[in-house]
Amino acid sequence: MAKFVPVGSFDIVIFGVTGDLSKLKLIPALFHRFLDGQIDRASKIIGISRQTLTEEEFLKFAYDACVKSALKGGAFPKAKWAEFVSMLTYIEMDATQQCQKWAELKNLISDKNHPCIFYLAVSPHLYVPICNSIAETGTKSENARVVLEKPIGTDLQSAIEINQGVRAVFDENSIFRMDHYLGKETVQNLLVLRFANTMFEPLWSNNSIDHVQITVSETLGVENRHEYYDKSGAVRDIMQNHLLQLLCLTAMEAPISLKAEDVREEKIKVLRALKGFDAQSVLKETVRGQYISGHIEKQAVSGYTEGLPDKLKNSTTETFVAIKTEIENWRWAGVPFYLRTGKRMAARRSEIVIQFKPLPHNVFGEGIREPNRLVIRLQPDEGMRLYMQIKEPGPGILTLKSLPLDLSYAESFAEVSYPDAYERLLMDVVRGNLSLFMGHNEVEAAWQWTDNLLQSWEEANQPIVTYMAGTNGPLQSAMLLDRENRAWWEEKA
């Protein structure tokens, strides 16, 4: 069992502390790490927001967030909570403006030798103004770090502007660009699977792999994010970051070390080799979809536009996207990569499916119907399954069946309470470990490919097709693979 290694004292300043990210992820993550002894009481957690709250109201907000979070069983630890509360402080302030509150913040920040983490849980257009305020008010210390949430911008140009603006205040080695998917156990295990097991390396190329599928599907709709999501869509919200990160880790060459710069270098090579689109190919190789009313777990749900304000009722924003692309290098030439993501789909799951080529010669006749597959599941139940052919027991005709060798985290590590992605990544920020965070070149390379896709859609006047909520997406998505005698992997219950 891996041990929780305590980190040194630190201060974390959360801008936008009253938002959903802070309530659902950041405050509970810090509390959980405190419960496991990774954070000591000398650390400080300072919340910044424009919302008017008394100290008592802020502590009630934090308490409700932690009570509702997924604590690992048992009663709420009130004694530990009383200790944790002593670390919390709230300041009402517009962080884009210079004001007397900055002096109050500076006084709260501890020893300048401690890491001071500025977590920007705000809209990306506020990143540069807040960083400028940090610099102009003298709040930044030598050991200061800044965390930026995805997405970094809305296109390549805005991403460049944000990166340049933040880098004018913070060194690149002090900037932590957060994509929480990189903190998931199975995502990290993907590197171990590939580079710590010699058996897979000879198979990990176009010599043995037929195609790769990467799926991130959600049963949720846009909830209370209408204004943001309608300007973003599935491509900017999920494809540009989560899906491309998973693709990079699946396809990258072995780095010379696990240092951040070495891992980033190999991921950037994948992004630069990723095949682009034009007005003709985008019509054949991509699908844009939007969900209409349907049922999820027997509950009726309304369509995307039905939940929008009147001014957005005619929206053509995509809530689903599926694409076929390729990586144009020697290892992967000719291997299709199919990526899809969508909201209001049949199941919540994120997974990578490596489908191997069929046998060159089948001596079993009709016995083999399924190819070998490696299914890497990120959520909801993290684990890996390698589907192989076995003989069904019994006398008579030799009958084969495809069954998985199953590595389930829940079963294999039943006694281990391991931290979630945000918990792990926050501790990496404190340690100054950049390995699981994106560099500015990586973000910009991802946006360059994404901008090409969006521009090609515009030039081709790409139609948006509908799919019923509670399904696996539009029919056109299935046809994207069907015309090449392939199909999306939908694991049987």
Principal-axis shape equals globular
Strand order of the largest sheet: 16-15-14-13-7-12-11-8-17
Poorly predicted runs: none
Helix residue percentage: 25-40%
Radius of gyration: 24 Å
Largest sheet: 9 strands, mixed
Oligomeric state of shown chains: single chain
Overall mean pLDDT score?
Answer: 89
The assigned structural class equals alpha/beta
CATH uppermost class of the largest domain: Alpha Beta
CATH architecture of the largest domain: 2-Layer Sandwich
Key structural traits:
NADP; hydrolase; six-stranded parallel sheet; 17 strands; Rossmann fold; alpha/beta; 2 domains; nine-stranded mixed sheet; 14 helices; single chain; Dihydrodipicolinate Reductase, domain 2; 493 residues; hydrolase activity; globular
Describe this structure in words.
Helices cover 34% and strands 21% of the residues. With 493 residues, it is an alpha/beta fold. It folds into two domains: 11-149, Rossmann fold (3-Layer(aba) Sandwich), CATH 3.40.50; 182-482, Dihydrodipicolinate Reductase, domain 2, CATH 3.30.360.10. The strands form three sheets. A nine-stranded mixed β-sheet has the order 16-15-14-13-7-12-11-8-17, with helices on both faces. The chain is globular and about 80 Å long. One of its GO terms (biological process) is glucose metabolic process. It catalyses: D-glucose 6-phosphate + NADP(+) = 6-phospho-D-glucono-1,5-lactone + NADPH + H(+). Substrate binds at residues 180, 184, 218, 237, 343. Residues 191-489 form the Glucose-6-phosphate dehydrogenase C-terminal domain.
